[in-house]
Design goal:
Blueprint: E1 15-18, H1 20-24, H2 33-44, E2 48-52, H3 60-67, E3 71-74, E4 79-81, E5 87-90, H4 95-108, E6 113-117, E7 122-124, E8 140-141, H5 144-147, E9 158-162, H6 168-179, E10 184-186, E11 193-197, H7 203-213, E12 221-225, H8 231-236, E13 239-243, H9 248-253, E14 256-258, H10 265-278
Parallel strand pairs: 1-2, 1-12, 2-3, 7-8, 12-13, 13-14
Antiparallel strand pairs: 3-4, 4-5, 6-7, 6-9, 9-11, 10-11
Helix pairs in contact: 2-10, 4-6
Protein name: Hydrolase
Pfam families: Hydrolase_3 (PF08282)
Keywords: Hydrolase
C-alpha cells in the first residue's frame, strides 16, 4: 500500500510531470488559485513543469491559455509542444497501420465504432457517441476506412474506440488482445472508450525521452496521475504520486499518495517540494 500524504519527506525533484483531468484540474475543469500559485512557485524555485495529458493536439492552445505557458505532452505521448504551442516532435500512427488496427479490432469486437484525433482535426464514424466530444470540433464524419486516408497529410495522433454494451474492462481487454502489439492500448475516462497510440508511444516514453534530452533523469522526476493511461508514466519515474481519487490500479502502483484533485493534491506536493529546496543543505 502506498504511503499517505505526510508519511514521508518529499524527495528533491527537478521536473514535475502532471496529468490534467482528475489530477491537476478540479472536477469542473478549472485550475484552483492554490494550484496556479504552486505551479508558479515551483518554476521560480527552478523546478520544471510539464503537462502530460491524454487530450489531443487540438486542445493544446486552450490548455496553455487556461493553465499557463508550460511544455505539453499531448495525446498520451503522441506529441510534445513548447510553451508557445509550437510542436516540437510527434509520434503519429501511420494511416496504413491504423487501418490494419481498425480491421483487427472490428473483427474481434463487433459493434465497435471509431474516432480519430489528427494533428489539429477530429473525425468519427456515425455511430461514435456525441457525448464524448464537442460538436464544433468535428471536421469529418464517415467510415473509419475512409477517414484514415483523409484529410491528406494529417497524421493520426490517437485512435478512440467505443462499444455500446461491453463493460470497459472487457472491452479494453479484447481490444488490447486484438491490437496484439500493433498499438499501445489504454483507457482514461471510466467510460467504455479505449484509446490507441502508435506502438511504443506512451506518456512514459515521451516524457523520459524529452526529459533525457534536457539532462533530467528518471529519478529526478515526480509524476502525478489518476487513471490507467498514467500508469506507464508513474512506473517510469523515481517519484510517483496517485491522487486520492485515482483508479485502484493507480493507487496500487504509485509510490506515494496525495490529496484529491478537488483538494489541491498536486499543489500540496509542489509546496512541499519548494519548501524542501529552501532547507539548509538542500540540493540545488
Amino acid at each position: 500500500m502506498a504511503p499517505t500524504p505526510g508519511d514521508v519527506a518529499p524527495p528533491p525533484v527537478r521536473l514535475v510531470a502532471t496529468d490534467l483531468d482528475g489530477t491537476l484540474l478540479r472536477s469542473d475543469g478549472t485550475v484552483s488559485p492554490r494550484t496556479r500559485a504552486a505551479l508558479a512557485a515551483a518554476e521560480h524555485a527552478g523546478i520544471g513543469i510539464v503537462l502530460v495529458t491524454g487530450r489531443p493536439p487540438r486542445a493544446v492552445p486552450g490548455l496553455l491559455a487556461a493553465i499557463g505557458r508550460y511544455c505539453v505532452i499531448a495525446a498520451n505521448g503522441a506529441a510534445v509542444y513548447a510553451p508557445d504551442g509550437t510542436a516540437l516532435r510527434t509520434w503519429p500512427i501511420q494511416a496504413s497501420e491504423a487501418a490494419e488496427l481498425v480491421a483487427r479490432v472490428r473483427a474481434a469486437v463487433p459493434g465497435v465504432s471509431f474516432a480519430f484525433e489528427y494533428d489539429h482535426h477530429f473525425a468519427h464514424e456515425p455511430a461514435y457517441p456525441s457525448w464524448s466530444y464537442a460538436e464544433d470540433t468535428v471536421d469529418l464524419i464517415g467510415a473509419a476506412e475512409e477517414l484514415l486516408f483523409r484529410p491528406p497529410g494529417h497524421p493520426v495522433a490517437k485512435i478512440l474506440a467505443h462499444h455500446r454494451t461491453l463493460p470497459l474492462d472487457v472491452f479494453h481487454d479484447r481490444a488490447r488482445q486484438a491490437a496484439d502489439g500493433h498499438a499501445e492500448t489504454t483507457h482514461s475516462t471510466g467510460l467504455s472508450l479505449v484509446e490507441f497510440s502508435a506502438p511504443g508511444v506512451t506518456k512514459a516514453s515521451t516524457l523520459t525521452t524529452w526529459a533525457g534530452g534536457l539532462g533530467i533523469g528518471r529519478d529526478d522526476i515526480a509524476a502525478f496521475g489518476d487513471m490507467p493511461n498514467d500508469l506507464p508514466m508513474l512506473t517510469a519515474v523515481g517519484n510517483s504520486y496517485a491522487m486520492a481519487n485515482a483508479h485502484p490500479a493507480v493507487l496500487a502502483a504509485a509510490r506515494h499518495r496525495t490529496a484529491s484533485n478537488d483538494d489541491d493534491g498536486v499543489a500540496r506536493q509542489l509546496e512541499q517540494f519548494v519548501a524542501a529546496l529552501r532547507r539548509p543543505g538542500a540540493r540545488a
